[in-house]
Amino acid sequence: MLPLSLLRASISYEIYVELKNGETFNGILESCDNRMNLNILNAIKTSRDGTNFLGIPHVYIRGSSVKYLCIKDKVMSKVKENVEEQKRNRSYRGRNRGRGRIGRGRGRGGRGGRGRRGRGRGNRNRGGNNRGRGK
Q: Are the CB atoms for 12 and 28 separated by under 8 Å?
């Protein structure tokens, strides 16, 4: 179970976020992105010392400032069920169908070299045009 898939599954559920500076936010997760930037609706902001509370209708939290997240158990069980279902429904297309990626994209040379004899390094004395180079 990946953290981002867990976070995406918790969209429209309540989430608790603590920031690195000690402030906390509790609200409904509206959206998130690959850098864990969060949009939270109807958030309640709590100060570092826990004495001041502030209701905010919409909050954007940068992912690099997040210390940890708390997600409901209902979301955790939902994600586990989805992962197990994906494992059961996984198709095996593409397996045992030839050489795969190993034999592709190697040009004409066969071993991944330059392709034709007479080009590249070490070709000086193999016949052809010598043009005054040492023998």
A: yes
